[in-house]
Specification:
Layout lengths: L1 E3 L1 E2 L11 E11 L2 E7 L5 E6 L3 E2 L7 E8 L7 E11 L1 E4 L1 E3 L11 E8 L2 E9 L6 E7 L7 E9 L8 E9 L1 H4 L6 E5 L10 E5 L1
Parallel strand pairs: 5-8, 9-15, 10-13, 14-16
Antiparallel strand pairs: 1-8, 2-6, 3-4, 3-7, 4-5, 7-8, 11-12, 12-15, 13-14, 16-17
Length: 204
């Protein structure tokens, strides 16, 4: 669910060059919301709202942030005008010794990308009225191999499925990505848009 951000701002609303980035909410600086942004080249910058801002999320939450940059980056800090956000399913890479038992209910993959030690996905999943399991799990036998195999575990637990809805995911993969032995992270998922694409490789 996309949420607006409650920020005090005396400036009139202006349309500009919006950005959507997956970020980590890191807390507040003088009541201004602060986020960590890992860019595609793995460099990190700090995003900070230009005015007082309040978010109903916990520190460390990953989210897709909608914002407008305000000025240039100075000493690694970018002032922004934040407009809204969508919380991402946030978890760390798990592991299993039985990858053949991982339930992989279908998703509609929109995009998958890595930034720093995070694997991010923009997907759609079918809405249910109950709980579900949704996480990234690694084949334990490949932990120290040059190609680590991971699976998008998605289990709707037998609940009645209805319409498709947006779902963003961001998994911390540092436990394997930082290993010298890891050369490729191979991610398997059950995608109904491109069913012939069995997996996606992320190489160092």
């Amino acid at each position: 669910m996309a949420l607006a951000i409650g920020c005090s701002d005396d400036e009139p609303y202006e349309y500009g060059d919006f950005r959507f980035d997956m970020v980590t909410f890191t807390g507040y600086d003088a009541e201004r919301a602060v986020f960590s942004l890992l860019q595609r080249d793995d460099s990190e910058i700090t995003l900070r709202t230009a005015s007082r801002c309040s978010l109903d999320v916990n520190q460390g939450q990953r989210m897709l942030l909608n914002y407008i940059p305000a000025g240039a980056v100075t000493n690694g800090v970018q002032e922004i005008s934040a407009r809204g956000y969508t919380e991402a399913v946030t978890d760390s890479l798990r592991y299993t010794s039985r990858p053949d038992s991982v339930v992989m209910d279908s998703v509609r993959l929109k995009s998958i990308w890595r930034t720093g030690d995070y694997l991010n996905l923009s997907t759609e999943v079918k809405f249910t009225e109950g709980k579900r399991q949704l996480y990234l799990v690694m084949d334990k036998d490949t932990w120290h191999s040059d190609t680590v195999r991971a699976y998008l575990a998605h289990n709707m637990l037998g609940e009645q499925a209805y319409f498709w809805r947006k779902c963003y995911l961001s998994f911390y993969i540092g436990a394997v990505w930082k290993l010298q032995s890891c050369k490729v992270l191979r991610v398997y998922l059950n995608d109904v848009i491109y069913p012939k694409v069995e997996y996606y490789d992320f190489a160092k």
